[in-house]
Design a protein that fits this description.
Blueprint (H helix, E strand, L loop, with lengths): L6 E7 L14 E2 L2 E2 H12 L3 E6 L3 H5 L7 E4 L7 H13 L6 E6 L2 E2 L3 H13 L4 E6 L2 E9 L3 H5 L8 H5 L5 E5 L6 E2 L10
Parallel strand pairs: 1-4, 1-6, 4-5, 8-10
Antiparallel strand pairs: 2-3, 6-9, 7-11, 8-9
Helix pairs in contact: 1-4
GO molecular function, one term: nucleotidyltransferase activity
Organism: hydrothermal vent metagenome
Keywords: Nucleotidyltransferase, Transferase
Length: 195
């Protein structure tokens, strides 16, 4: 898979896992942690610069992260997802070669590489657009933001991430349905895949 060198990826994994009951990022799935599974999946379709944003339990989680990714610690992780998103985008934004940033949730499994490639192809076709994956007609990830959005993302507050900006409709947002993926948002241990 050919990936543009101007793409950076931010994996949001700073949350406190309150509904999960333990450190969700470290949950075991067939010998690897949930976060390792997500990062491995990302590196299939985006082998370039990947930043993982950590917050709660960051020292424990950091030990399982591959050396091939960068780790950013978000001290304000408990103020909401926007703080984590802002920290990740701020870290990506300092790289002058990165013109687009794909955002991925650190607790979502099942993204098919072909679907990720379709999202990236849509971004390649219109690099100034925001390209958002949809799953079963609902907003999903990855979402690819052009550099023109970085400042807005860095300025976000609260627990809604970029959701309100994307819903406002005042920008060019291209939506790409995920047709091969079976996304699973892991909120509780019952959401973990079993084999």
């Amino acid at each position: 898979m050919i990936v543009s060198s101007d793409l950076g990826v931010v994996v949001l994994a700073a949350g406190g896992s309150s509904r999960f009951g333990s450190t969700k990022q470290l949950a075991d799935i067939d010998g690897a942690t949930l976060l390792e599974r997500v990062v491995d999946s990302v590196q299939v379709w985006a082998p370039g610069r990947v930043i993982v944003v950590l917050g709660a339990q960051s020292e424990r989680i950091r030990r399982v992260i591959a050396d091939s990714v960068e780790v950013v610690i978000c001290p304000e992780w408990d103020s909401g997802m926007s703080a984590s998103l802002a920290a990740g985008v701020a870290a990506i934004a300092v790289d002058p070669e990165v013109e687009r940033c794909a955002v991925v949730m650190g607790d979502t499994l099942g993204l098919d590489p072909h679907d990720a490639a379709a999202v990236l192809a849509a971004s390649d076709a219109d690099p100034q657009a925001v390209v958002q994956a949809t799953f079963r007609r609902l907003p999903a990830h990855p979402t690819v933001f052009p550099r023109s959005w970085f400042e807005r993302l860095i300025g976000l507050t609260g627990d809604r991430g970029a959701r309100d900006l994307l819903r406002s409709g005042y920008e060019n947002v291209v939506r790409v349905p995920l047709t091969k993926s079976e996304l699973v948002d892991v909120d509780t241990p019952a959401d973990l895949p079993t084999h």
